[in-house]
Amino acid sequence: MASTSHAPAATADGHSASPYKHPYHLVDPSPWPLTGAFGGGALVLGIILWAHMGVKWVFFLGLLATLGTMFMWWRDVVKESQTAGLHTPVVRLGLRYGMTLFIASEVMFFVAFFWAWFHFALYPEHVSGAARAVWPPQGTLTFDPWGLPFLNTMILLLSGCTVTWAHAALIQNDRKALIQGLSLTVILGVLFTALQAWEYTLAPFAFSGGGIYPSVFFLATGFHGFHVIVGTTFLAVCLFRAIKGHFTPEKHFGFEAAAWYWHFVDVVWLFLFVCIYWFGAGEIAHH
Question: Measuring CA to CA, which residue among 195, 255, 257, 259 is closest to residue 225?
Fold first, then answer.
């Protein structure tokens, strides 16, 4: 018995129609949710075993499984996006809703850090063991906000301009400018991370044992730095895909999601700079 062909037919506007009788994408059975669950569980268990018993191999096994799952799963998603008829307008709308909700959850993640910061900044008498109710706590030296923090602010703002330039070039089907804009954005992201790592080496307060100020500072800025690394990786993958010709002016949600995420990272840094580096500045440490 001959098999039925599911080759997508072309619609009147020239786009490939879905091979199904509905606009939704029913994904094929995949092992990656299961391997991702086991990898994530092993990763968390490995952290606990490493911290309390000095056993490291479980952590690295979980890390390897998690990274491998991420690579393979995202590879499959990229293949799906390149298969005609699968990412229909309804599917792309669902992806936009998903990315919007993800960024909203990330906003609330950082709200927790800002909440902790402003709680002690506005009510310094709640700082345990403080001799005086002042913020930053008495004796805490802070960064000069107009030094490295301001330079990193300018770098991130410039990267927001370059990723917007790349998006505009994609809309105009200018592949050369798209690649140039994405390349500059990735370079600026790497530069930001390098400068923040250097800044941490110059910190006038300890990473641990220094009280509430360094705890909240490193949590907020450190998690933001992690998000910059994730966003840079996201954009680097988009750069590779742009070089391969995966994006068109009509279909490029992968790049659009990366640009949304990068603008979110930019905005969070602006709040960090104003609230923590500038508003929260005390006696400046001189290096």
Answer: 195
What residues of the chain score a pLDDT lower than 70? 1-22, 25, 128-131, 209-210, 282, 285, 287
Say if residues 281 and 150 touch (Cβ distance below 8 Å): no
Amino acid at 204: P
pLDDT tens-digit map of 29-41: 889 999 999 999 9
User: Rounded to whole angstroms, how far apart are CA atoms 259 and 264?
Assistant: 9
User: For residues 247 and 6, what is the distance between their CA atoms, to the nearest angstrom?
Assistant: 24
Residue 137: partners with Cβ closer than 8 Å, 6 or more residues away: 124, 127, 130, 211, 212, 213
Task: Give me Rg for the CA atoms of the chain.
Answer: 23
Q: Give the span between the Cα atoms of 27 and 33, in whole angstroms.
A: 12
Closest listed residue to residue 277, CA positions, set 220, 238, 229: 220
Asked if residues 80 and 87 have their Cβ atoms less than 8 Å apart, the reply is: yes
> Tokens representing 21?
């009788």
- Asked if 56 and 46 touch (Cβ cutoff 8 Å), the reply is yes
